[in-house]
Structure formats: C-alpha cells, structure tokens
Amino acid sequence: MNFRPTSISWPGSRAVLLVHGIGRASAAGDAAFPLASLKTALGADAEDVAVYTFNYDFINDWLVRKTGLADGIRRLKDVLRMKMGDDEAAGTIADYAGDVLWPVLSADLRLAVRDAFIAQLIQIHLDCGVSALDRGDDPLDYQISIVAHSLGCFHTYETLWATALEPTHRLRPASNLFRLQSVWLMASPVQLIRSVASDIRAIVPDIDTLSCVARPLGIPYEAIGTRKTMCTDRFIAVTGSQDPVGGHILGQKQEWAFMNLGGQQTVIEPQHLTNVTDRASLAKALQLAAAGGGTAGVSVVDPHSWTRYIDSQADRLRSVILT
Amino acid sequence: MSAAWIRYATAACVLFTVVSPTARAQPAASVGTDARMLALADSITVGDYCRIAQRVAAAPTVRVALAADSSIVQLSTAQICDVRPASLSLRALRGDVPVSLSAIARLGTRAFGGTGSATFAAMDAFRMRTRSAELRPVVRAALGDSLARDLSRITETADGILAMQARDAALTRLARYERKLGPTSAPLNGVEVLLNWGAQLWVPGFRPSTRQGPSPWELVASYVPTYATVVEKRAQAVSASEFGVRRYLFGQQYGAEGWRGVLYPTYWSMGAIVVSDRNGALVWPWENRQRTGIFAGWGATKVAYVRGRKGEWIVSRQVQLIPLVF
Lengths: 323, 326
What we know:
The complex is a heterodimer of chains A (323) and B (326).
Chain A (H helix, E strand, L loop, with lengths): L13 E6 L5 H4 L6 H8 L6 E6 L2 H11 L2 H14 L4 H18 L1 H28 L8 E7 L1 H15 L16 E5 L3 H10 L11 H4 L6 E4 L2 E4 L4 E6 L7 E2 L2 E2 L11 E5 L9 H14 L13 H7 L1 H8 L2
Parallel strand pairs in A: 1-2, 1-3, 3-4, 4-7, 7-10
Antiparallel strand pairs in A: 5-6, 8-9
Helix pairs in contact in A: 2-12, 4-5, 5-6, 6-7
Chain B lengths: L1 H15 L14 H13 L2 H13 L1 H7 L3 H11 L9 H5 L6 H7 L7 H16 L5 H8 L1 H37 L8 H13 L14 E15 L2 E15 L11 H4 L3 E10 L13 E9 L2 E6 L5 E6 L9
Antiparallel strand pairs in B: 1-2, 2-3, 3-4, 4-5, 5-6
C-alpha cells in the first residue's frame, strides 16, 4: 500500500494528531482511535479542531511478511497470554510484547515508521500554513498538539528527537519555528524500552538512531549555542497506577519502566483492575455472587485503555489544547 | 538445439506464471494543499521577499529587539536582495517551473548554480530570527497589520514549498523501505534474517540512513529446490544453495507489476551456487559430489551456470515455499 499522509483543511486554528499504539489500527480504521472521547473532551469547540490520525500497522506487516515470523510472533503472544491469564490486561501486555520487538531490533522498521510520521507532521504543518494564509491569518499563531498512546509514545518520542536534530526534515523548533502546543504521552513505554534496549544494546542495530538509548532521556530540543528550544512547552505524561506499559505493576511504580523526563508534567491516575473499588461495591459484589453464583457484578477493567485515559483527562485536555 | 531452447523458454514461461503481488511505491501528496501552496509560491517573487525583508531589517525597534541577531538579519536581507533572481517566483527559485528568458539573461545561465539554495538559506535565517515568538509582536507593531500579514504570507510560503520538498523526501525514503520490505521484496529465510541483522550491526553499507532510507543491499543465503534444467531432452528439477547479495532498485520505474515487472523488477541478485551432481527436487546440495557455479537474478527470475563434467545452465524463479525455512 502507498502511505498517504492525511490532509485536512483546518476548520479553526487548532489541530490534534492522534498516534496509535499497539493493535490493529489499520483494520479498524477510525474506530481504532478514541475520536468520540476526544470530541466529548473538547466539547463545543471540537468542531473547530482538525483531528488527524496516524498508525503504522502496515509497516509492521511488511516486516512480518518479509521475515516470515508472523507465526512466531503469534505464538509468542499466545504463550504470554496463557501465562498471564485471560483478562484484558494480559492481552494488552501480550500484544505489546510482540509489537515492541520490531522497533528495537529492526532499524529498517524503526526508521520507516519515523519517515511516515515525519511526512504526516509536515503535511499537518502545510495544511496549517494554507488554512491560515487563506484566511489572512498568521500560521505561526495556529496550534498543533500530539496525543499518543502506548507504543505510539515511543515513535512520537523518537520522531520528535529526529525532527529536532535533523535539518533536512525542516521541523526543528528553533531554526524552523516548528513548535507544538502540547505533547501528550499516555502510558508511555519509553523508559521501559530504554531499560530493555540498554541491556541488549550489543544486538540492537544502528543504535545511534534510537534516541531513547543513544542519549539521556529528555524532552526533545534543538540547541543553538547554549540556548535550548524545546519542541513544546507542555510535555504531559499520563499513566495509570495499574498500567504495566506505563511503568506500574500491581499499583507499584517501577523506576526502570516509568518515564520521568525532566520538565514533563506527570499525571498518575489511580486505577483499579476491577470495578470493585471500595467496601460498599465489594459487599454488593459478594451479595450478587452469593445469590447468583460465579463472579456476578465483578468485571475486569483494562488499565491500558486509551479511551479511558482520554475520558479521565478530558478537563485537562480541553484546557491545554484549547488554550 | 532449437528444441532445447524452446524447452528452456517454456520452462521460463511456466516459472513466470507465478505472478507475485506487487505494489508501486510512490510518494503521494495532498493535492489540494499542494496546489494552493504552489499557487501562492507562483504569486510571490524573490523581489517581494526582498522588499518586505528590507522593511523589517530597517525598523529601529526590530533592530533593538534583535540585538546581536541584527547583523545576521542584515546579512540575510542583503543575500535575499541579490538582484539576479529578483524577478523569479519562489516556485521558480526552487526549480519547479521553467525560468523566463529575461531571468536567464539576468542570471547569465539557465542553471542557477546554487543561487536558489543560497537564497532559500538566507530566507530561513531571516525567518528564524524575525518570526520567532519573541520577535513577532515587535515586528507586527513596527510594520502595522497589513505589512505584517504580507510578511507572514511571504515568509510562510517560502517555508511551505521547502517543507513540501522535505515531505516528499520522507515519502521517497518510505517508498524505498516499502520496496525493500514490502510485498514485492524477496522474503527471507531464518538464516538470512540473522545474517542481515548481523550485517546491519557490523557492516556499515547494510545500515539504513536517516537521509537516504534503507540500504539497497541484502545478503542471500538460501536453499532453492526450484531450479530446473533440461537433460537429454527432459526437464529436471535441481536443488541448490545460493550465497550472494541482492540489491534493491529504488528508481521510480522499478518495482512494477505483472509483465512490466519482468523489465523493471524490484531487485537483482548474484552470487555463488552449490548443487549436488544428482538432480531432483529437495535434494541436499552437498549430497554426493558437489558442483559449484554462479547465479544471477533479475527480479524473481534467476539463471545459474554450474560447472561439472559438462557445463549446465539452470533457471529458477524466486519463491519461498515454506516461510522462514526456504
């Protein structure tokens, strides 16, 4: 398939790029993105915000076909699911474990995703320019935000470093004045990937192009002399207290997996793995179970759900993106 | 003799009937936005940029706000105001459209010899310093709303047409990745996956590049049970091991579909070949006495010459029978 960056005539002066994480975004199309939740979060102003989506499943598919390892990856995911039980969280971790192998171990895949991402960012920049100039506005007064989830956070992090450092991409924050209104990384595995990739760095090809390992973790910036210009002033990391991808296991923060960049705003949502969150709901669930048998009334909550993150951060998203 | 050649040709045709799915990897762009940006770039000349830059550079409040950067802005303005390309549109300066005869006369050459890139570099330097978040309010106050709008239109259009080039460069690199990894590429077996991974680790020529995209090279080390030959007027299968390199063709005309793909395939390959002196499918190449030779492939079609008691030509088509194995 030919990748075609999405192009939108901006209805207002703001745009949001949603970057998908793991899973089958291509197959589900727009349904794979939490568009309804974002629209709800932005409220009445949602109609004035251009919403772009980006996924890279098709590039993963190239490599899976090329290497014939599809069955191996599927089996690995199946084995992981088996070991971790059948709940939604285990499925999420299993998907993640399979999908995260490629960007670390394949430099081709990593840079291919980056180029697709860069092309999409430049397209947004161009759409911004044309939309603003057609109205007699200044494009530099228009605003772009990125909201990424899961593995999409990793690709966002790597791409923003690449654009901050490489002149030919023409997206440097100081030299090309390409600055983002805000960057949201929801359940970011950047620190987790750094920890794992550092341990196996001897077998990671082209490690210099892997910013999360090749340089200290930090908000991407361009340095001119002693002056550093960040890619954004609002770099917001959101994770949940039960989300393993975001660096938490059974409610405990894992320093080796929790992303904590200097200057980032951190939000850790209190989460529960089931809908039993207090004594009253426990009592109700036990009564239901005693009456009907089984686990009536108790359901498992996916701590990694992108939609839940958007829903829970609705107020903050609205206030930052619409500032 | 002619009958043997007819059999060779027939065998080749049969091999070609396994038509692999292909997809042309070409950069695609947003037509609406591009057309609008190019129209803007057509309507603005370098002279327009020069005039507005001079207004900005001459404004006392701007000079004060620029402080040490003021001299860079003056220098950039002087470079933008080079009289030779003054009548060129921004699009012509980028080299997209033919240049008028009068412009050629002024420049003294049909080729700009770096004038375009030097002028764009000066525009970048000017924009970076005068359009920053700190300077914009100062410039707006100094120029007034109308001129500030002109400044925005001119500087952002110049930036926009260069951004289009950067986007197309990213899409070209992505198309190359698709050529090398996508549906028309050669699948790798397990040994090749490891070899090529090692090559990316330790051999610089096999690594991808941030500006160029993937390396065109790939190592070949495969067991191929699908070669065919003609012995005593009868077609026979031949199993072989290949060791060599594959080079992907990144030119736009390559990676074509169907019969056109025969002329413009996705890759070529060459290297050494080992076969047993016993012909047959699924024969171990090191069985009995081995024979060695060379192979060359143009796309999926491969021809090899194997030495032996008498030389022998064998042909095959690139196909993976069992994923990850051969």
